[in-house]
Amino acid sequence: RRALVVGNAAYAGNLSLDNSVNDATDIASALEGLGFETILRTDCSLRQMEDDLLTFYDSLKEGDVAVYFYAGHGLELGGVNYLVPIDANVRREFEVAEETMKAQRVLSALEASAAGLSVLILDCCRDNPTRSLFRSAGPQAGLAQMDTASGVVMAFSAAPGQRALDVGERNSPYSLALKQAL
Q1: What are the φ/ψ torsions at residue 175 (nearest 5 degrees)?
Q2: What is the pLDDT of residue 4?
Q3: Which 3 state secondary structure label does DSSP give 2?
Q4: Residues 129, 18, 174, CA angle at the centre, nearest 5°?
Q5: Contact 50, 101 (CB under 8 A)
Q6: What is the DSSP string of 100-163?
Q7: Which of 1, 72, 73 minimizes the C-alpha distance to 37?
Q8: What pLDDT was estimated at residue 39?
Q9: 3-state secondary structure at position 11
Q10: In whole angstroms, what is the distance from residue 103 CA to residue 81 CA?
Q11: φ and ψ at 170, to 5 degrees?
Q12: Residues 6 or more apart from 111 whose CB is under 8 A from it?
């Protein structure tokens, strides 16, 4: 059992999040309690997110149960979902693909891994942090639906096109419920 848990909160300006590092810390602890070898990363740059994904992928052995959990800003643009690192410097719509990590990249790594079962959990998409820049792109609430191959289970904190909540004293409602269920 192996898990990579990422929580990004320390975004510049008024984009910081209150709960996502707490969410990641608590989910990592819950997974460790279930016997998972867990890597916890907080407030990651794009390079760190990419490097950690590669390290995680390389660690997966045949038959492993793999869990990737992400809490932080997420956004959807043109039907593609992106996970936003804390160093993202998105000033224009065309910069999104270079400044963020496609959620599909994580999904593709899980699908291609040797793991027998993989779980992708996204507690993001609280609100598109760059929506004011993308007025021409239409409504920016929630992530787009994602499809996967067999052997990968996906869990989202909100339905496609819906915002997840980032309220609560310590955790988002989704991560709190997930922590209690684990």
Answers
A1: -65, -35
A2: 98
A3: strand
A4: 85
A5: yes
A6: SEEHHHHHHHHHHSS-SEEEEEEEE-SS-TTGGG-GGG----SPPP----TTEEEEESS-TT-P
A7: 1
A8: 97
A9: coil
A10: 5
A11: -120, -40
A12: 118, 148, 149, 151, 152
Q: For residues 127 and 134, which has the higher predicted lDDT (pLDDT)?
A: 127
DSSP secondary structure code for residue 164 in this structure: P
Residue listed under structure tokens 């598109």: 128
Token duo for residue 16? 């910081």
**Residue carrying the six token digits 């992400």:** 70
Query: What element of type H or E holds 4?
Result: strand 2-7
Stated as kind and residue range, the H or E segment containing 98 is: helix 96-99
The pLDDT of residue 138 is 42
Residue 137 has a pLDDT of: 42
172, 164 Cβ separation under 8 angstroms: yes
Q: Give the position of tokens 């043109």.
A: 78
Tokens of 88: 């993202």
pLDDT tens for 41-96 read: 999 999 999 999 999 999 999 999 999 999 998 888 888 889 999 999 888 888 99
CB 143 within 8 A of CB 124: yes
Q: CA 90, CA 81: separation in Å to the nearest integer?
A: 15
pLDDT score of 134: 41
Query: pTM value?
Result: 0.87
Q: Which amino acid is at 106?
A: V
Place of tokens 């707490």: 22
